[in-house]
């Protein structure tokens, strides 16, 4: 049925955060249908969904490949808004690889096309690129500008993402009470959506708050809870081992810290992301 591929691809984009495995299956089926229907706009959305899933599961090479395909298919179909959405996702993937200049170019190419909630999401991605560059105050400013656009959109998933990410920036800046409020609101939103993996990420961030406050038992319990929650949905990310390592070093638990650091280095090498590998080795 014409239009079925697009509907399935859009459903995969909506669900990639709450159920990555199911979203990937839907996107793959949508891509096959789009190719049969010669619906290039739907093919672009399907590749975007596959890129989002790959990026969320830390497969950056696959994410970049799918998102570049998404841009090409969307532009072939004349779907410039869809192409710009994929550019914002690609910018984040590139930033994670340490390629911040091309990431900012993707943001600049997408900016003239997007407004409203899409404009808010663009600002969120720009903030993530700024964070990768160490420009935390610029990142916080981008989140502040994005927040009213995202709240007006009444999209709880996107709002939870923004709050979780802004919480990380505020935590990095030492604004722990503000960060904790953001994480708590994000956790409630993710729980209401049944989004297990983002809930694990929020538990991870709350463990970091405990670590910054010097609450070593609370931090260890928090990291344990986050690890358990991650395992239910994916492998444990290197960020958890890195953050756990830093907390253990501060607590004088060198042997445990070394084990966490070695796990972080191994995962960074596997992901082939130079910036993260260098940070893990340090």
Oligomer: single chain
Compressed to H and E, one letter per element, the order equals HHHHHHHHHHHHHHH
- Tell me the distance between the termini: 54 Å
Specify the biggest β-sheet: none
What is the helical fraction, as a range of percent? over 70%
Give Rg in angstroms. Answer: 19 Å
Number of discrete helical segments: 15
Number of E-state strands: 0
Strand content: under 5%
Low-pLDDT parts are none
Q: Kindly state the mean pLDDT as a whole number?
A: 90
Structural class given helices, strands, pairing? Answer: mainly alpha
Shape: globular
Descriptive report:
The chain has helices spanning 4-15, 20-37, 40-56, 60-76, 80-96, 100-110, 116-132, 136-153, 156-172, 176-193, 196-212, 216-231, 238-250, 254-271, 274-281. It is an all-alpha fold. The protein is globular, with a radius of gyration of 19 Å. The mean pLDDT is 90.
Helices and strands, with pairings:
Elements: H1 4-15, H2 20-37, H3 40-56, H4 60-76, H5 80-96, H6 100-110, H7 116-132, H8 136-153, H9 156-172, H10 176-193, H11 196-212, H12 216-231, H13 238-250, H14 254-271, H15 274-281
Helix pairs in contact: 1-2, 1-3, 2-3, 3-4, 3-5, 4-5, 5-6, 5-7, 6-7, 7-8, 7-9, 8-9, 9-10, 9-11, 10-11, 11-12, 11-13, 12-13, 13-14, 14-15
């Amino acid at each position: 049925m014409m239009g079925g591929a697009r509907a399935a691809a859009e459903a995969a984009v909506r669900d990639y955060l709450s159920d990555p495995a199911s979203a990937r299956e839907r996107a793959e089926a949508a891509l096959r249908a789009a190719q049969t229907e010669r619906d290039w706009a739907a093919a672009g959305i399907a590749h975007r969904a596959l890129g989002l899933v790959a990026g969320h599961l830390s497969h950056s090479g696959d994410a970049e490949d799918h998102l570049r395909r998404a841009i090409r298919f969307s532009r072939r179909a004349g779907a410039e808004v869809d192409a710009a959405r994929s550019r914002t996702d690609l910018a984040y993937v590139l930033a994670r690889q340490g390629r911040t200049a091309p990431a900012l170019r993707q943001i600049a190419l997408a900016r003239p096309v997007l407004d409203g909630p899409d404009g808010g999401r663009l600002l969120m991605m720009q903030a993530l690129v700024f964070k990768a560059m160490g420009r935390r105050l610029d990142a916080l400013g981008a989140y502040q500008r994005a927040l009213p656009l995202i709240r007006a959109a009444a999209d709880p998933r996107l709002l939870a993402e923004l709050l979780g990410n802004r919480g990380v920036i505020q935590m990095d800046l030492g604004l722990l009470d503000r960060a904790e409020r953001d994480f708590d609101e994000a956790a409630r939103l993710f729980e209401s959506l049944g989004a297990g993996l983002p809930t694990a990420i929020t538990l991870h961030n709350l463990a970091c708050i405990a670590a910054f406050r010097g609450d070593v038992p609370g931090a260890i319990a928090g990291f344990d809870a986050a690890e358990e929650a991650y395992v239910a949905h994916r492998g444990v990310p290197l960020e958890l081992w890195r953050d756990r390592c830093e907390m253990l070093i501060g607590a004088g638990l060198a042997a445990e810290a070394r084990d966490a650091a070695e796990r972080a280095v191994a995962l960074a090498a596997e992901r082939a992301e130079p910036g993260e590998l260098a940070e893990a080795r340090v």
